[in-house]
Design a protein that fits this description.
17% strand; 7-stranded mixed beta sheet; single chain; 27% helix; Rossmann fold
């Protein structure tokens, strides 16, 4: 797999990442109790037990969203565009987006931290801090089953947990999950989870619409 590249929608001078070569609620009960809505165009479910969604919806128009997506193979190996680029563009209709891919087996790098401004790295000192963060997990078409997630899912979850820890209470952060099946670990420590059982252009557009209400 080649080097993952960052994409900026509405902002310039964005640099690509370097270094590439608990309390858990029962899923069915938790999602039933805190689901905000199921969008009619797609089976989008939202678990929100913190203020992240409300915070996203009042972000200033000048604030960037740091969008972290996994660099993983999907259905079309000949596709040149990053498969998550449509999600970034859909979000960009509301706010500037910095799309920063990550390699699950490598995990979070200093550059990822710099986009959150959680490091004093001089190499990335000219990157403005993010106003909010979204971490994406995608297990669609990765061989997941009804019983257990894939290894890739586990690695992506670890990355999202690190983003959550670094964002802490400084900026709002939410988790977006594309997977046919839900697993308990999706909810571990995340206050807001947006889940779609399908991965498609329509689903990505609906996720963006759901986040901003």
């Amino acid at each position: 797999m080649g080097e993952a590249k960052s994409h900026s929608y509405g902002r310039s001078n964005i640099f690509p990442p370097s270094g590439y070569p608990s309390t858990t609620a029962k899923l069915e009960t938790a999602f039933q109790k805190v689901t905000l809505k199921e969008h009619p165009m797609s089976l989008i479910s939202v678990r929100s037990v913190d203020s992240a969604l409300a915070a996203f919806r009042v972000l200033d128009a000048t604030e960037d969203i740091a969008l972290f997506t996994p660099a993983i193979p999907l259905n079309n190996p000949n596709q040149e565009m990053d498969p998550f680029e449509p999600l970034g563009r859909a979000l960009r209709h509301r706010l500037p987006v910095r799309h920063i891919p990550f390699v699950p087996k490598i995990g979070l790098t200093e550059t990822h931290k710099a986009f959150l401004r959680c490091t004093t790295s001089t190499d990335e000192a000219d990157i403005d801090p993010a106003g909010a963060a979204i971490a994406v997990i995608c297990d669609v078409h990765q061989g997941s089953s009804n019983k257990r997630p894939t290894e890739s899912f586990g690695l992506q979850l670890q990355f999202a947990q690190r983003v959550r820890e670094l964002a802490a209470e400084e900026i709002p952060m939410l988790l977006v999950v594309f997977s046919e099946t839900l697993f308990e670990s999706y909810l571990d420590g995340f206050g807001t989870v947006v889940w779609s059982p399908e991965f498609s252009l329509k689903a990505m557009g609906t996720v963006a619409e759901t986040i901003f209400g």
